[in-house]
Design goal:
Blueprint (H helix, E strand, L loop, with lengths): L2 H9 L4 H10 L6 H15 L6 H8 L6 H15 L5 H10 L11 E5 L2 E4 L8 H12 L13 H6 L10 E2 L1
Antiparallel strand pairs: 1-2, 2-3
Helix pairs in contact: 3-6, 4-6
Length: about 170
Protein backbone atom coordinates (compact mmCIF):
# COMPACT_ATOMS: atom_id res chain seq x y z
CA UNK A 1 0.00 0.00 0.00
CA UNK A 2 1.12 3.51 -0.74
CA UNK A 3 1.47 6.22 1.89
CA UNK A 4 -1.57 8.06 0.56
CA UNK A 5 -3.71 4.95 0.94
CA UNK A 6 -2.41 4.49 4.48
CA UNK A 7 -3.31 8.07 5.42
CA UNK A 8 -6.72 7.67 3.85
CA UNK A 9 -7.38 4.45 5.80
CA UNK A 10 -6.35 6.07 9.07
CA UNK A 11 -8.46 9.17 8.43
CA UNK A 12 -11.58 7.11 7.71
CA UNK A 13 -11.63 5.50 11.14
CA UNK A 14 -11.63 6.64 14.74
CA UNK A 15 -10.72 3.13 15.91
CA UNK A 16 -7.32 3.63 17.55
CA UNK A 17 -6.71 -0.11 17.69
CA UNK A 18 -7.15 -0.35 13.90
CA UNK A 19 -4.86 2.62 13.36
CA UNK A 20 -2.20 0.96 15.53
CA UNK A 21 -2.64 -2.28 13.57
CA UNK A 22 -2.20 -0.36 10.32
CA UNK A 23 0.96 1.35 11.50
CA UNK A 24 2.47 -1.93 12.78
CA UNK A 25 1.36 -4.35 10.06
CA UNK A 26 1.02 -2.29 6.86
CA UNK A 27 4.23 -3.68 5.39
CA UNK A 28 2.72 -7.18 5.24
CA UNK A 29 -0.25 -6.34 3.04
CA UNK A 30 -0.50 -5.18 -0.55
CA UNK A 31 -4.13 -4.03 -0.57
CA UNK A 32 -6.54 -2.43 1.84
CA UNK A 33 -8.78 -5.51 1.64
CA UNK A 34 -5.92 -7.78 2.77
CA UNK A 35 -5.16 -5.35 5.60
CA UNK A 36 -8.80 -5.35 6.74
CA UNK A 37 -8.91 -9.17 6.60
CA UNK A 38 -5.72 -9.35 8.70
CA UNK A 39 -7.25 -7.02 11.27
CA UNK A 40 -10.47 -9.07 11.33
CA UNK A 41 -8.44 -12.23 12.05
CA UNK A 42 -6.67 -10.50 14.93
CA UNK A 43 -9.93 -9.22 16.44
CA UNK A 44 -11.55 -12.64 16.06
CA UNK A 45 -8.66 -14.25 17.94
CA UNK A 46 -8.72 -11.57 20.66
CA UNK A 47 -12.41 -12.30 21.19
CA UNK A 48 -11.59 -15.96 21.83
CA UNK A 49 -12.65 -17.49 18.53
CA UNK A 50 -9.97 -19.72 17.01
CA UNK A 51 -8.89 -19.16 13.43
CA UNK A 52 -10.11 -21.66 10.86
CA UNK A 53 -7.50 -23.47 8.78
CA UNK A 54 -8.11 -21.05 5.89
CA UNK A 55 -7.65 -18.03 8.15
CA UNK A 56 -4.53 -19.57 9.72
CA UNK A 57 -3.06 -20.18 6.25
CA UNK A 58 -3.96 -16.64 5.11
CA UNK A 59 -2.26 -15.18 8.19
CA UNK A 60 0.88 -17.21 7.51
CA UNK A 61 1.16 -15.62 4.04
CA UNK A 62 3.29 -18.45 2.68
CA UNK A 63 3.55 -19.63 -0.89
CA UNK A 64 5.11 -23.04 -0.29
CA UNK A 65 3.55 -26.39 0.40
CA UNK A 66 0.96 -26.25 3.15
CA UNK A 67 1.62 -29.76 4.54
CA UNK A 68 3.81 -28.68 7.48
CA UNK A 69 1.49 -25.76 8.23
CA UNK A 70 -1.51 -28.11 8.32
CA UNK A 71 0.35 -30.38 10.74
CA UNK A 72 1.15 -27.38 12.92
CA UNK A 73 -2.45 -26.15 12.83
CA UNK A 74 -3.82 -29.57 13.86
CA UNK A 75 -1.29 -29.81 16.68
CA UNK A 76 -2.11 -26.30 17.94
CA UNK A 77 -5.86 -26.94 17.77
CA UNK A 78 -5.41 -30.05 19.94
CA UNK A 79 -3.49 -27.93 22.44
CA UNK A 80 -6.32 -25.38 22.37
CA UNK A 81 -8.89 -28.10 23.03
CA UNK A 82 -6.82 -29.25 26.02
CA UNK A 83 -6.65 -25.71 27.37
CA UNK A 84 -2.93 -25.22 26.76
CA UNK A 85 -3.38 -22.41 24.21
CA UNK A 86 -5.85 -19.59 23.75
CA UNK A 87 -7.31 -18.50 20.42
CA UNK A 88 -5.05 -15.45 20.45
CA UNK A 89 -1.98 -17.60 21.00
CA UNK A 90 -3.01 -19.77 18.04
CA UNK A 91 -3.19 -16.56 16.01
CA UNK A 92 0.30 -15.65 17.28
CA UNK A 93 1.78 -18.84 15.82
CA UNK A 94 0.45 -17.84 12.40
CA UNK A 95 1.32 -14.16 12.73
CA UNK A 96 4.92 -14.80 13.77
CA UNK A 97 5.34 -18.03 11.77
CA UNK A 98 6.45 -19.92 14.89
CA UNK A 99 7.33 -23.60 14.34
CA UNK A 100 5.97 -23.70 10.78
CA UNK A 101 8.97 -25.58 9.43
CA UNK A 102 9.10 -28.01 12.35
CA UNK A 103 5.60 -28.57 13.82
CA UNK A 104 6.76 -31.64 15.73
CA UNK A 105 8.90 -29.34 17.90
CA UNK A 106 5.80 -27.84 19.54
CA UNK A 107 5.61 -29.21 23.04
CA UNK A 108 3.29 -28.32 25.90
CA UNK A 109 3.56 -29.25 29.55
CA UNK A 110 1.17 -28.52 32.37
CA UNK A 111 3.10 -26.63 35.06
CA UNK A 112 0.23 -25.98 37.45
CA UNK A 113 -3.53 -25.92 37.70
CA UNK A 114 -4.71 -24.37 34.44
CA UNK A 115 -1.13 -23.25 33.65
CA UNK A 116 0.81 -24.54 30.71
CA UNK A 117 4.24 -23.98 29.19
CA UNK A 118 4.35 -24.12 25.40
CA UNK A 119 7.37 -23.42 23.23
CA UNK A 120 7.23 -21.14 20.22
CA UNK A 121 10.40 -22.26 18.39
CA UNK A 122 11.77 -18.75 18.63
CA UNK A 123 15.36 -19.86 19.17
CA UNK A 124 17.10 -23.18 18.60
CA UNK A 125 19.52 -24.41 21.23
CA UNK A 126 21.37 -27.66 21.64
CA UNK A 127 20.15 -30.36 23.99
CA UNK A 128 23.36 -29.95 26.03
CA UNK A 129 22.72 -26.21 26.39
CA UNK A 130 19.12 -26.86 27.47
CA UNK A 131 20.32 -29.30 30.14
CA UNK A 132 22.87 -26.76 31.34
CA UNK A 133 20.19 -24.06 31.60
CA UNK A 134 17.97 -26.37 33.65
CA UNK A 135 20.89 -27.23 35.86
CA UNK A 136 21.86 -23.61 36.49
CA UNK A 137 18.31 -22.36 37.01
CA UNK A 138 16.87 -25.13 39.19
CA UNK A 139 19.92 -27.00 40.39
CA UNK A 140 18.98 -30.24 38.70
CA UNK A 141 21.80 -32.66 37.98
CA UNK A 142 22.59 -32.15 34.28
CA UNK A 143 23.37 -35.81 33.62
CA UNK A 144 19.94 -36.91 34.84
CA UNK A 145 17.89 -34.35 32.89
CA UNK A 146 15.86 -35.87 30.05
CA UNK A 147 14.10 -33.57 27.61
CA UNK A 148 10.87 -35.20 26.41
CA UNK A 149 9.39 -34.03 23.15
CA UNK A 150 12.63 -33.53 21.23
CA UNK A 151 12.29 -35.29 17.88
CA UNK A 152 14.74 -38.18 17.52
CA UNK A 153 16.35 -36.73 14.37
CA UNK A 154 17.14 -33.46 16.12
CA UNK A 155 18.33 -35.26 19.26
CA UNK A 156 20.99 -36.98 17.12
CA UNK A 157 22.18 -33.69 15.66
CA UNK A 158 22.04 -31.92 19.02
CA UNK A 159 19.46 -29.30 18.01
CA UNK A 160 16.39 -29.13 20.20
CA UNK A 161 14.36 -26.86 17.90
CA UNK A 162 13.99 -24.26 20.57
CA UNK A 163 12.52 -26.76 22.95
CA UNK A 164 13.52 -25.10 26.17
CA UNK A 165 14.68 -21.55 25.70
CA UNK A 166 11.39 -20.51 24.18
CA UNK A 167 9.11 -22.04 26.82
CA UNK A 168 6.72 -19.47 28.10
CA UNK A 169 4.16 -19.81 30.87
CA UNK A 170 0.60 -19.38 29.73
Amino acid sequence: MELEELDESCNRTANQKYIKFISNEIWKYETEEELAAGYARMVKAEQGSPLTWEEFWAELRMDDDSTAAQKLYRRLRRLMENGALSAYQLYGYARHKWCVRCPEAVAAYQIGPKRWAVNNCGEAISEDRAQLLLNSRWGLEAGRIKLPGIPTATRQTGTSSAFLLSLRAL
